[in-house]
């Protein structure tokens, strides 16, 4: 019998696996999570699973229902919009600071990400594009040196993982967001903090527009 993962590493493994399942659509809002099933699926002890569920509940990705266990939290469109409005303010700040503070290596990586994003759109490689999108945002925040913003954005992004996945796979979405991302990259690499802030704002404004349109009734 294979020993099960325990401790902090197991706790992190389970939490990361649940986040990935949400992004990939394997878990859906409202779905109940059973500790025994998760322990078997992820090769971890029930104690590690329980701690991971508590961590994800603290991030508001899950909710713990008394005597019924954990389930994936449902995020309304309006809550998603409000989260994105908060993200926008912080990402504008980070983009502006990154334009001033990014290292040469970070600017070079941003340039590579931009080239890879162009190729992913040309190839129709949507999962690759989504991963590059995530890395772009992470790198801009990292380059900003704004640790409080990084932690706050981490908490804000938790409940949004499912929405971010759905938006990324909407028909035409990568081609629409590509020039927005390239504008952020160009401004940061070009050391233009005002342009970087404007580009980040424009991108998040478009995300909000897409979220609102997802709630609009379909035409008859």
Automatic annotation (TrEMBL):
InterPro entries for the chain: GntR_C, TF_FadR/GntR_C, Tscrpt_reg_HTH_GntR, WH-like_DNA-bd_sf, WH_DNA-bd_sf
Keywords (A to Z) from UniProt: DNA-binding, Transcription, Transcription regulation
A Pfam family of this chain: GntR
Domain of life: Bacteria
SMART domains for the chain: FCD, HTH_GNTR
Matching PANTHER family: TRANSCRIPTIONAL REGULATOR, GNTR FAMILY, UXU OPERON TRANSCRIPTIONAL REGULATOR
Listed name of the protein: GntR family transcriptional regulator
């Amino acid at each position: 019998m294979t020993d099960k993962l325990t401790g902090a590493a197991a706790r992190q493994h389970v939490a990361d696996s649940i986040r990935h399942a949400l992004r990939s659509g394997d878990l859906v809002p409202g779905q109940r999570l059973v500790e025994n099933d998760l322990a078997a699926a992820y090769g971890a002890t029930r104690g590690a699973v329980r701690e991971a569920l508590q961590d994800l509940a603290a991030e508001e990705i899950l909710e713990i229902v008394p005597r019924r266990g954990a389930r994936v939290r449902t995020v309304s469109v309006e809550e998603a919009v409000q989260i994105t409005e908060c993200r926008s303010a912080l990402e504008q700040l980070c983009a502006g600071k990154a334009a001033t503070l990014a290292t040469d290596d970070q600017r070079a990586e941003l340039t590579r990400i931009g080239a890879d994003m162009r190729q992913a759109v040309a190839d129709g490689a949507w999962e690759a594009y989504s991963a590059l999108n995530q890395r772009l945002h992470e790198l801009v925040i990292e380059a900003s040196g704004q640790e409080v913003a990084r932690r706050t954005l981490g908490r804000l992004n938790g409940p949004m993982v499912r929405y971010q996945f759905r938006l990324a796979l909407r028909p035409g979405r990568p081609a629409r967001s590509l020039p927005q991302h390239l504008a952020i990259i160009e401004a940061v690499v070009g050391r233009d903090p005002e342009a970087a802030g404007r580009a980040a704002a424009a991108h998040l404004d478009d995300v909000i527009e897409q979220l609102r349109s997802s709630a609009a009734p379909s035409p008859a």
